[in-house]
Design brief:
Elements: H1 21-26, H2 43-54, H3 72-76, H4 88-96, E1 118-120, H5 134-144, H6 147-153, H7 166-169, H8 172-177, H9 182-187, E2 191-193, H10 201-216, H11 222-238
Parallel strand pairs: 1-2
Helix pairs in contact: 10-11
């Protein structure tokens, strides 16, 4: 109801590509093949993009040029009824908007033709190949990767991050400590890592994001957005 400044969903043109990926995977589509062929112009991808972009009709225009972090305000203030976010968002809501604790819950996205899919993103420990203290660095990484340390860095501390070990996700302790994580844990079995192993893909993703954003603003159709992104992406991939 625009007159009351109340909407059903929230979209962000600045992050258009990333939040499209779950719909893409659920439709049975993908981004790139293992040999670097662009796949996001398939019928499945276009169907997912059209559905996704059409959600702009149910989204507040004031937040379209914002981002998912700023968009938490619209959700907390009751301007939007649904908001796509990861487990981290639960902790942000609890800390910043305690007045709505107990008044919201998580739910999975509706399953598509390819079933339940959601994106997985995370941080990683790395060791530089020219480090002068590789043994010490390895021991430190090994220590931080132990189950008890991962628990301490995620659900046993402030915030609502998920640990990257199945044994911890399936333990009784995590839901006991952070009940709000239960819905997010259930979705981990549907997780798809959206990182494409191609050094040129970040440039393509930037273009894909821009083109889908244009579609959200009504400058082109969702299908045209994917075709335009693919044309530019193929030019990038063809360069040596």
């Amino acid at each position: 109801d625009p007159a009351k400044n109340q909407y059903g969903y929230e979209l962000f043109a600045s992050e258009a590509a990333y939040y499209w990926y779950p719909w893409l995977y659920q439709a049975g589509g993908d981004l790139l093949s293992e040999d670097g062929e662009i796949l996001f112009t398939s019928d499945e991808a276009k169907e997912a993009a059209e559905f996704y972009v059409d959600l702009v009709d149910y989204s507040p225009k004031d937040y379209l040029n914002s981002n998912s972090y700023d968009g938490r305000v619209a959700f907390a203030q009751g301007q939007v009824g649904m908001y796509m976010a990861g487990a981290w968002f639960a902790g942000v809501l609890e800390d910043e908007f305690p007045q709505i604790n107990g008044k919201w819950a998580s739910a999975p996205l509706p399953e598509g033709p390819a079933g339940c899919k959601t994106t997985i993103a995370g941080d990683a420990l790395i060791m530089l190949n020219q480090t002068e203290s590789s043994d010490a660095a390895w021991l430190w990484m090994e220590y931080l990767s132990r189950p008890e340390q991962l628990a301490r860095m995620t659900y046993l501390t402030t915030g609502t991050l998920l640990p990257p070990l199945t044994s911890l996700l399936e333990s009784d302790e995590i839901v006991k400590e952070k009940p709000v994580l239960e819905g997010f844990i259930d979705l981990m079995k549907c997780g798809v890592a959206s990182t494409v192993s191609n050094p040129k893909f970040p440039r393509i993703e930037t273009i894909l994001n821009e083109e889908l954003g244009k579609a959200m603003y009504g400058e082109q159709t969702a299908s045209e957005a994917l075709d335009n992104a693919a044309q530019q992406g193929e030019a990038i991939l063809s360069r040596g």
